[in-house]
Recover the amino acids of this structure.
């Protein structure tokens, strides 16, 4: 998976628009679109912000995008192990967290409080 695919997938799992994620990261939606389409490279600062906001380790993007075919067998095995032990659980946590977040409609709905009378 390429960085752009990972970013797009995480954003979709969090049910965020480009505008919402861009605002949280302090970047323009057009720049985020370029990152998601693979037309721009991400800076370290933005990568750290993305990882923090999307609740994945910053190394997630690096480990997942590493092309294992170019590595020696022993290094390929280490990278595969890192993916299994770090990346996959982090993505599962991010997806689970995204599923628990209220939708924008739910978040803006008034809360009715019912109090039991003694």
């Amino acid at each position: 998976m390429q960085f752009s695919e990972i970013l797009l997938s995480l954003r979709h799992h969090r049910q965020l628009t480009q505008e919402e994620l861009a605002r949280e990261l302090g970047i323009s939606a057009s720049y985020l679109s370029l990152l998601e389409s693979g037309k721009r490279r991400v800076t370290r600062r933005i990568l750290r912000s993305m990882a923090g906001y999307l609740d994945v380790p910053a190394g997630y993007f690096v480990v997942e995008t590493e092309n294992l075919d170019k590595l020696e067998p022993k290094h390929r095995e280490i990278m595969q192990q890192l993916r299994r032990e770090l990346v996959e659980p982090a993505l599962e946590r991010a997806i689970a967290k995204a599923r628990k977040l209220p939708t924008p409609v739910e978040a803006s709905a008034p809360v009715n409080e019912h109090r039991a009378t003694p």
Notes: The longest helix spans residues 73-100. The helical segments are 3-13, 18-25, 29-36, 44-54, 59-65, 73-100, 104-108. The CA atoms of residues 73 and 114 lie 63 Å apart. The mean pLDDT is 75.
